[in-house]
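Follow-up to my post from last week.
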Amino acid sequence: MTKKQLTQAIAFNTFRIISLMVVAVLFIILGFIVIHGISAVNWTFLTSMPKEGMTEGGILPAIVGTLCLVAGSMIFAFPVGVLSGIYINEYLRETFLKKFMRSMTNNLAGIPSIVFGLFGMALFVNTLKFGDSIIAGSLTLGLMVLPVIIRTTEEALKSVDDGLRIGSYALGATKLYTVRKVVLPVAFPNILTGLILSIGRVSGETAPILFTVAAYFLPRLPHSIFDQVMALPYHLYVLTTSGTNIEKSRPMAYGTALVLIAMVLIANLSVNFIRSYRSRKK
Amino acid sequence: MKKYRRISEKVAVGILFSSSTVTTITVLFIILFLFREGLGIFNSRPVENNYEIVVNQDNPINQLSARHLKDIFNQDITNWKTLGGNNDSIILLTISEIGNYYSEEELGANFEYLPQRINDFVQQHTGVFAYISKAYITGNFRWKIIPVHKISVGEFLTGQQWYPTASPVALYGVLPLILGTLWVTLGAIALALPIGLVTAIYMAEVAGNRFRNILKPVIELLSGIPSVVYGFFGLVVLVPLIQKTFNLPVGETALAGSVILAIMALPTIITITEDALRTTPVSLKEASLALGASKWQTIRRVIIPHSISGITAAAILGIGRAVGETMAVLMVTGNASVIPSSFLQPVRTIPATIAAELGEAPFGSTHFKALFALGIILFIITFVFNSLVELVKAKR
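User reply:
Got it. Predicted complex:
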């Protein structure tokens, strides 16, 4: 064994240990929440109202609230994001405008979530007079994940073979028809991954909903889009930092964290499933 | 038919174009609204708008800073000499205390003599410091009003005390918050950068396919876990651990924030670094190996130097992400607004301050504006880091 090989062996083994540490961190966090949360989560927990100052009962309003916010933000952001992705990738040549739009997408992606919270409060809650409501929260969250959807749409469209487009034109199809009937169907599964990733992100964000929609305690289901709702991430925050009895609501907090993590896990797994399914089909 | 087709094409392109303007409009709107609400702070005074500070007409003092006012109210300063005036102890006079000096008859049944009494009092006592409503300040009295200036940009940025809800004088000094944010962030990057770099190198150059297929989803999941869950984990696991290990009165410290932020920044750093490492041309690698270099030497001398700009971009982007992180930091750092000097003390960051205080700040109040001004600072910091990333990328 020469000195050269020895240094390499030491370096690579250190690298391996550190990489395994990163994996371990994830499993520690997940394991910790799953082990403590699994006993708290049952059917009643998922389908009943919180009681006794949130130390008993369930988290139904928070689940429903989060679902409302996910639905609301996606109804807004998905079409807008996909359409702008199509425009940037299919209709713009490498011009200043394309560069500009890309850099704006990057800028929007880089803005911290709490700044979106401030902005949503100033625009939707106060200026447009929506008050703290599902619609204000959904629009705030929707604008926040817009860059994610635009980027995945662009990537998905880029991976479509140019031969398909050229073939379609050769048969006399217009540009619009080509995009609609040829490019989109091929790219759609990958566009879907953007949607799923955004859902994962929207369901876990707290800062943008603090001042636009989230209610501390509201044991009923929303009636309209102008209602406040409870939401899972904010509920977890409340239970661990400012609940009526933090010690007694600890099991509730573990349960809420587990439900949140489960959402993210399901989103990630389905994205990976779509990706691997696609690559196998090729 | 042809005509109809052409119109529908035009309409479609119009819809596509208008959708793609949403991001630009949003960025502009965010800037507009932040500045509209936030710049109002420089148009406000640190005391109630309709109150004045009044002293005896012979008092040589003409100016007092917001901080001095607060010290006088808290009775940390009790003599005018401290402020460069006469050797005379300060007599605080507010409306609630006027009853200690005058009987109800003297003040009148409906307090109609109150302005007169305040006037007498201020004239008789050379050391008086009165904080009273403008309503009681009438024309023909002899006394001196100490002007309270609007909050200046300099005061706001370099003020060392953040007491936004203190009454009657609120202090809006954001220096401890800015430094707290940078402190926690730099601590996080110091931890995350070496670990992330090593993991990325291992993934890109050393690991077999099997290990890579484990690592990829692990990193995706790490980046998918919500901020509030990281905060929760930090609060119930990391904070007690730090408290025990270092034998501290509280475990909510800058260190806890940095560790959690480091874990949260890892996915960004690893992904971007790995992409950068993969851009190294195979010919370079093979040339190095052909000259008898080991794999490790190739990584150190060829691959890392070649992808240094990508690694820099990863570090900057990681910093940009960490600076804006809210919930996790809010839950584990203890939120004491002091200028940080160690990692084992509580600190307070800008995003955590906004999240914790905006709910209690009345709409349109000075405090509310101050929080939006904090939002501007945060926006500028992240914007600078993002632009740096663009620059580094463009260089490549």
